[in-house]
Amino acid sequence: MTQSLRHRWGDPNRLAQKTERECTRGCGTIKVTFHQGGRHWVEFFRDGEKIEGKHTPVCVPVAAEAEHA
Ligand SMILES: [Zn+2]
Questions:
Q1: 23 Cα: distance to centroid of ligand 1 (angstroms)
Q2: Among residues 2, 21, 33, 40, which one has the fewest Cβ atoms lying within 10 Å of its Cβ?
């Protein structure tokens, strides 16, 4: 039985063609929802690189202080 940690997405940064949300747990993952040409899809990025895969990447906080003051 595997237990995956869920991300906790921060406030959305709404741009013209996409919305970015960064995980506040400190794992460095950014969830980007694209809105282009009437289509909508989600991609995940970490360290500026796209995370390949169909499923949401597991949340692995790298910093102990995941909480932002
Ligand atoms: Zn996370």
A1: 5
A2: 2
pLDDT in tens, 33-47: 999 999 999 999 999
Q: Say how many C-beta atoms besides its own lie within 10 A of residue 25's C-beta.
A: 20
Sign for the CA dihedral angle at 53, 58, 60, 65 comes to positive
Report CA(62)–ligand 1 centroid distance (Å). 9
Q: How far is the CA of 37 from the centre of ligand 1 (A)?
A: 29
- Domain spans, the chain: 13-51
The pTM (predicted TM-score) of the whole model is 0.79
Q: Which two tokens stand for residue 33?
A: 């929802």
Cα–Cα distance, 22 to 32 (Å, whole number): 9
